[in-house]
Amino acid sequence: MTPIIQIFISSLLLSIVHALIPSHWLPLLAISKVEKWSDRETIYVTTITGISHTISTVIIGIVVGLIGYKLSESYYYITHFVAPIILITLGLIYFFIEYHHSKIKNEHHHHHIDVDGIIKKKSKRSIVISLSAAMFFSPCLEIEVYYFTASKLGWLGIGVVSAIYFFVTILGMVLLVYFSSKGVQKLKWHFLEHHDKLISGIILVLVGVLAFLVDF
């Protein structure tokens, strides 16, 4: 497996898992129902908030990636060994948190949108702004960490991660909200919502191990 394929697959896995976690898109669906938005309005708002969320993550990720790239020029072991160790360690931490059924404040996955606080006596424009702000300040930790690994390929690696994360996350959120509004909400999202750290932990460990096995 070539390095770029490894980065592509790993980024895709992390992005898909991120898009599937209900913490962000289910509140959007709830607000659309309360406000009686049309499908078009709901998709529009989901797209805007999704862009807001991914932009903040990509900005931070690029900074992390550039730091990793600079370090890799002088310290080979940092991005070739330390970065995968960080991914695996983060995955194990998620396992630990899952095991103890605890939640960490301000962490990405359990950053739920305050639906009542957002829609109470607010115009549609205010709701969109509030949603976008809430999503902007909840960047994806997993992808940000992976930027450090992807930086071994310089701007190519950083660009691949950014593009995949951006489009997969937004497309995933839009599709999930749309199909859920059509009746798929009857599906049981309870497992994903309450075991997101377990799923993310598994993916992070797999991605970390894959990074070890691929020789950049």
Account of the 3D structure:
Helices cover 79% and strands 0% of the residues. The protein has 216 residues and is mainly α. Helix 3 (39-74) packs antiparallel against helix 8 (155-181). The chain starts with a helix and ends with a helix. The chain has one domain. The protein has helices at 3-20, 22-35, 39-74, 76-99, 115-119, 124-136, 141-150, 155-181, 190-194, 196-213. The longest helix has 36 residues, at 39-74.
Give the overall shape, derived from the CA principal axes: elongated
Computed structural class:
mainly alpha
How much is the radius of gyration in Å?
Answer: 18 Å
Mean pLDDT: 78
Number of strands: 0
SSE series: HHHHHHHHHH
Number of helices, counting only DSSP H or I runs of 4 residues or more: 10
Largest sheet: none
Total individual domains: 1
Range of strand content: under 5%
Poorly predicted runs are 103-111
Helix amount, in percent? Answer: over 70%
Task: Tell me the distance between the termini.
Answer: 10 Å
